[in-house]
Write a structure and sequence with these properties.
The structure holds 2 protein chains of 2 kinds. By secondary structure, chain A is of the alpha/beta class. Helices cover 65% and strands 8% of the residues of chain A. Chain B has a 4-stranded mixed β-sheet with strand order 2-1-3-4, sandwiched between helices. Classes of the chains: A alpha/beta, B alpha/beta. At the A-B interface, helix 2, helix 4, strand 4, helix 6 and helix 7 of A face helix 2, strand 4, helix 6, helix 7 and strand 5 of B.
């Protein structure tokens, strides 16, 4: 029996298992569809708008009312007026509003008489995005208010209109966001969360598929159907799952970059390659885990622990350099980390192969992992001498 | 009921896999996450500077930027191409460019603009570049204005009044430095409790199913009655175990990592009591769907990160699409994590946390009823197995 015939047999057998137990298709196709729909629809706004900002206006002057209206008119903020500070603070503590602005009594009068009133604002930094965006929004408004006062003074002094801007704002910043010009938070998260979920699903499903043979004692049947050739048995399973997961992964890439039009400086083909390598490397990790711990339940628990932590250790939210130095190396044991590095080169900088070949090499290196455990796995399948449950 | 309690406790204690999940995941995970996010503040983001202006102003600003906590001027490049290369090699996460006419424009009293290029691969790089350069810019603006006014013959006092027409103070009482860890850890601690319980209970239920027993079988002495007693008896076991884990996760772990604990201990305990009750009935209801020992992992592991987002700790709840807002009400973690953030980290009192606690109570009642229904249906199916089988044979 040649190798291809053997693989064909395993594939046929696996397809029969799929037909009998829907968990494989449910766990891969359904889960990934759900995740894709979730991350894309949940964050579809890109940047949150109408974040509640509390304003306690003790002044009730035209200046303070104008400030409220201006703040309310920004895309980000929605002003909620409060009568007193304590109820506003309670809502800040309860997370109902992201920030509280306190306009003191006599605010307008003090500005006019040059007594420099103090405007205070409180931010709830526990709700990160809302809090930091509100901080930026309010700070801009305060500076504008201050600027408006100065502009009036300059006009009264007779400074020509063409020179006012130079006086008001001697220095300015011109910000370029490389790789995400609209600061789309949805694109930023979905770009990595969905492939992160793919890594998780590949690892869990494949561990389950290989582990179920141990658990239900069918490993020997699998081995014997291919004449005891463990390489054919595992390759057959991998072949089928590679097709399935690559199809899922490529659909995701097409959805992200062609349908949602998320920013991508490089070409889609490069991302498809990255996705294919991510699938391969994750599969290798799954085989390695089952091979090391040939007990279905344990292997699954380890796989779950590994892949959930992977979302953090990849460092696309909190960069790896911020983590304790002992963990820096750990991020390298995740295929997702290399996928992320590759994405940064392709998606953000649009670099060529010369810049991202190290990531390709790293992902390919993962594929050698199964070879270390093949013998052990064959032994486990043949003799089933490990605890089953 | 005591009988059911004992039986369930024995079942859990004898099941190595479930114990491992409870102990390893329940006790290890909070520590792991705290360790990963131990220093949650990104400092000294390396940037490259291209100073084409080469004037005293640009040099001073570069020094000031280097002095901020956010930025570190790692390279000084002669042209943009060199900086770009460093950017692509990821040796720097941003570029700051001062154009040739920067000094001239300042001298002519026009707006002098400098550019920053931020690597958006992590929003924290962008935040640091923005904050670091904005602080320096605001400081410079004020300095330059005061200098000019002094030149025009104003006294320091007059100049200050004219530049700072309005003074402001920004206060960020609960997370002063926008630390990533304080915000993330507050949100996920209670979620760990919920997920560990759900996976553990599902595993236990799955095992019973595999061994052809049912979690729902009623003791014969009850003669088919006492659905509520089965739910409460089994639930009490989990409740006790998870109150211990919960106190560890919500009170001891934060203390170990010197994490802010501004809440009152008894308030947190009350929250835990309600939250754990809710989680017990939640897990009981949903674990009914699990038929095999491992399938909970295969089918539901992906829900953990989704639940994190549904707590509204990062993407604000006010911006949730309506469907996902309703969907988030299915999980105890949505309310539990929010009230933990408010009670523990923001130091709120029970009155402020009341809406979430009320929601948790309502959820508990609903899930208790659903858990009872699940047991009843399962029992009915079990007792009438023969009849059902017969029916199937006939049809």
């Amino acid at each position: 029996m040649n190798f291809l015939r053997k693989i064909d047999r395993v594939v046929q057998r696996e397809l029969r298992i799929w037909a009998r137990r829907p968990i494989y298709i449910l766990g891969s196709l359904f889960v990934m569809t759900f995740c894709t729909v979730f991350y894309l629809s949940f964050l579809k706004e890109g940047v949150p708008s109408d974040v509640p900002i509390a304003v306690v206006d003790l002044d009730r002057s035209s200046t303070s009312r104008n400030f409220c209206q201006q703040l309310d008119a920004t895309q980000l903020g929605k002003v909620i007026l409060y009568e007193d500070f304590s109820s506003a603070r309670a809502d800040l503590q309860g997370g109902k509003v992201t920030s509280v602005c306190l306009i003191p009594e006599g605010f307008d009068r003090d500005i006019q008489s040059q007594r420099q009133p103090t405007f205070s604002f409180y931010i709830n930094g526990l709700y990160f995005l809302g809090g930091s965006l509100a901080w930026k929004d309010i700070l801009t408004m305060v500076n504008l208010t201050s600027g408006a006062v100065q502009r009036e003074v300059l006009r009264m002094k007779g400074v020509p209109e063409s020179r006012i801007m130079g006086e008001l704002r001697p220095v300015d910043i011109d910000i370029h966001q490389i790789g995400n010009p609209t600061m789309n938070y949805g694109a930023y998260l979905a770009n990595m969360m969905i492939p992160g979920m793919l890594q998780m699903v590949v690892i869990i499903i494949l561990i389950y598929s290989l582990g179920a043979e141990l658990k239900y004692g069918t490993g020997r049947h699998l081995l014997h159907s291919v004449g005891g050739d463990i390489y054919a048995a595992v390759s057959g399973k991998l072949a089928l799952y590679t097709v399935l997961f690559t199809a899922i992964g490529w659909s995701i890439e097409v959805i992200l970059y062609k349908w949602m039009h998320f920013p991508l400086a490089g070409s889609l083909g490069q991302m498809l390659l990255a996705c294919f390598l991510l699938v391969l490397a994750s599969e290798a990790v799954a085989v390695f885990i089952v091979g090391c711990v040939p007990i279905c339940r344990f292997a699954l628990s380890i796989g779950a622990l590994y892949s959930v932590l992977g979302l953090s250790l990849t460092g696309f939210t909190l960069p790896v350099e911020t983590m304790p130095s002992a963990l820096h190396g750990f991020s390298l044991i995740y295929p997702l980390r290399h996928y992320y590095d590759l994405y940064v080169q392709v998606g953000i900088f649009g670099s060529g192969f010369g810049a991202w070949y190290p990531q390709v090499v790293m992902l390919l290196l993962f594929c050698f992992l199964p070879f270390f455990v093949m013998k052990r796995l064959a032994h486990a399948y043949e003799y089933l001498d490990y605890e089953r449950n | 009921m005591l009988d059911i309690f004992n039986r369930e406790l024995k079942q859990i204690l004898h099941d190595g896999g479930v114990m491992i999940i409870f102990i390893v995941a329940g006790f290890l995970y909070p520590i792991l996450y705290n360790y990963v996010y131990k220093n949650g503040i990104l400092e000294d983001t390396p940037v490259a500077v291209v100073d084409r202006a080469c004037c005293s102003d640009s040099r001073r600003m570069i020094r000031e930027m280097d002095a901020t906590r956010e930025l570190n001027i790692a390279y000084r490049c002669t042209d943009l191409e060199e900086a770009k290369a460093l950017f692509q090699e990821r040796k720097v996460n941003g570029i700051i460019l001062f154009p040739e006419d920067f000094g001239e424009k300042l001298a002519y009293r026009e707006t002098a603009t400098f550019s920053i290029y931020a690597d958006m691969s992590s929003f924290l790089y962008y935040k640091n570049l923005l904050m670091g350069s904005e602080f320096v810019m605001l400081h410079e603006i004020n300095q330059i204005k005061i200098e000019r006014l002094a030149f025009d013959g104003l006294t320091d006092q007059q100049a200050d009044v004219s530049v700072h027409a309005v003074r402001y103070e920004d206060i960020n009482p609960y997370n002063r430095a926008f630390s990533y860890s304080i915000f993330l850890i507050s949100a996920i601690l209670l979620l760990i409790v919920q997920q560990v319980m759900f996976y553990g209970m599902s595993m236990s239920v799955g095992t019973m199913r595999e061994e052809n027993r049912s979690f729902a079988s009623l003791p014969d002495t009850l003669q088919g009655r006492g659905v509520g007693r089965v739910v409460l008896g089994r639930g009490a076991v989990y409740w006790l175990i998870f109150m211990i884990i919960g106190i560890y996760v919500a009170c001891i772990v934060p203390a170990l990592f010197r994490f802010p604990q501004r809440g009152d201990f008894w308030d947190i305990l009350l929250l835990l009591a309600i939250f754990v009750t809710d989680c017990v009935f939640f897990s009981m209801t949903w674990s009914t769907l699990v038929t095999r020992r491992e399938s909970a992992f295969v089918l539901f592991l992906f829900m953990s990160p989704i639940c994190v987002f549904l707590t509204g700790f990062s993407w604000p709840t006010t911006a949730f699409p309506a469907f996902w807002r309703w969907f988030s009400y299915l999980f105890p973690s949505t309310f539990g994590c929010q009230s933990f953030i408010n009670l523990n980290t923001a130091g709120a009192d029970l009155e402020i946390a009341a809406p979430q606690l009320r929601a948790l109570c309502i959820q508990s009642v609903v899930y208790f009823v659903l858990a009872c229904v699940a047991v009843y249906v399962e029992n009915f199916a079990l007792r009438n197995k023969d009849k059902i089988n017969k029916l199937q044979l006939i049809s």
